[in-house]
Amino acid sequence: MPHIVVLGAGVIGLSSALHLQSTGHTVTIVARDFPSGSETIDAQAQINYTSPWGGAHNRLVPPSSAAEECEHAMSLRTFDHMRAVQTRHPEAGITFMKGIEYLEAPSPAYLALSEERARTELGMRGFRPLGKAELPDGVEWGCEYETWCVNPMVYCAFLLRRFAILGGRVLRREVRDPREIFAWAFEAGPVDVLVNASGVGFGDENVFITRGQTCLVANPCPATVTRQNADGSWTFCVPRNFDGGTIIGGTKEPNNWDPNPSPEVRETLLRKFAATYPQILDREGKFTVMKDIVGRRPTRKGGIRLEKETVDENKTIIHAYGLGGRGYELSWGVADGVAQLLSEHLESSTSWYNAQAGEAKL
Ligand SMILES: Cc1cc2nc3c(=O)[nH]c(=O)nc-3n(C[C@H](O)[C@H](O)[C@H](O)COP(=O)(O)OP(=O)(O)OC[C@H]3O[C@@H](n4cnc5c(N)ncnc54)[C@H](O)[C@@H]3O)c2cc1C
């Protein structure tokens, strides 16, 4: 069996590594950052490791282009896999719960969303448009549906533990270029194929970061709630469960490298969320703030890079990065894509080798 190295231990690297391992491959994960507990993680030192700072919930995005259709299919695949993992491993950090969407200025794609279309065409469960009386002030359209969210620290640590107990190897290293890895000596043998799940890729001019400031509060919440404001800003909460509190968010700021949370932004986020969903406040009408969070979504013009590349004439890299704000939502769909690209590659190499062997015999 070929030896596959996955570069990256964020949600994309971990999901891909587990998926490849489950199809019988020998897999090693190489990464600079690995999951660690939320109490001890160094927010500033690991700001470029996005996965700990994600919400992370699965949201309804009605597709209105071919690329969005493709992402939607990945999100459905992830939904089903999350359900299976949650059933088998209640400790994995996944919770299924109600998702609520509020839109101040809904696009035609949302307005056209009937229960019938949501269920049959979009494959959504429990979809129900909300009546006018159920909407907060200023909201034009709303719905609820069944969804999931994860506590990222618990979930990513779970994926890594599963990978290790199933025989996967891990190596903490920082690389300048993924091609370095082809020259390394591994116990498991030379590297046949490398999966680049580094979040931002290496020198890809299309990649940029989208800063997100959120605030972790101790207040529990029974639903994930998202409000798209008419000015383009977002107001949301993601319950993390597993003693992880609730994330109140959040900003989306392309190319903003500021690592420091702004106290003014925190106040605005909390005030807007309390106005949208006052049920989250405690008996005294307050939030219990635990900490501010700043993360960098690995965004890419043109969307996710999920493709195979041949480098240095005969080395193969499968790229899986640039997930922006949807890394968790699409993770198992991306892992499927990686596995498919790998199997196509191995089939074509096998036939090439067979052809060579055949020629030699002749
Ligand atoms: C505020 C915020 C809210 C979000 N909310 C959601 C949400 O609700 N739902 C959702 O689906 N997504 C959400 N996201 C996005 C999600 O967190 C990301 O899409 C996802 O974490 C990206 O994962 P990744 O594995 O691609 O990258 P990362 O998590 O960044 O992992 C990259 C890995 O590559 C390694 N690496 C990189 N460079 C090198 C190198 N040179 N040498 C060695 N190793 C290297 C790193 O160490 C790390 O292990 C949110 C993000 C933010 C910031």
Walk me through what this model shows:
This protein is of the alpha/beta class and 362 residues long. The chain has a single domain (3-346), classed as 2-Layer Sandwich (D-Amino Acid Oxidase, Chain A, domain 2), CATH 3.30.9. The chain contains 7 helices and 15 strands. The protein has helices at 11-22, 66-88, 108-111, 115-120, 152-165, 263-276, 327-361; strands spanning 3-7, 26-31, 94-103, 128-129, 141-150, 169-172, 193-196, 207-217, 223-228, 234-239, 246-249, 253-254, 289-300, 305-311, 315-321. A hairpin with a 3-residue loop joins strand 14 (305-311) and strand 15. Helix 1 (11-22) packs parallel to helix 5, helix 1 crosses helix 7 and helix 2 (66-88) packs across helix 7. The longest helix has 35 residues, at 327-361. Mean pLDDT is 94; it is low at 357-362.
- Helix- and strand-based class? alpha/beta
The residue ranges in which pLDDT falls below 50 over 5 or more consecutive positions are 357-362
**Number of domain units:** 1
- In whole angstroms, the N-to-C terminal distance is 27 Å
> Which quaternary structure do these chains form?
single chain
Order of helices and strands: EHEHEHHEEHEEEEEEEHEEEH
- Tally of helical runs: 7
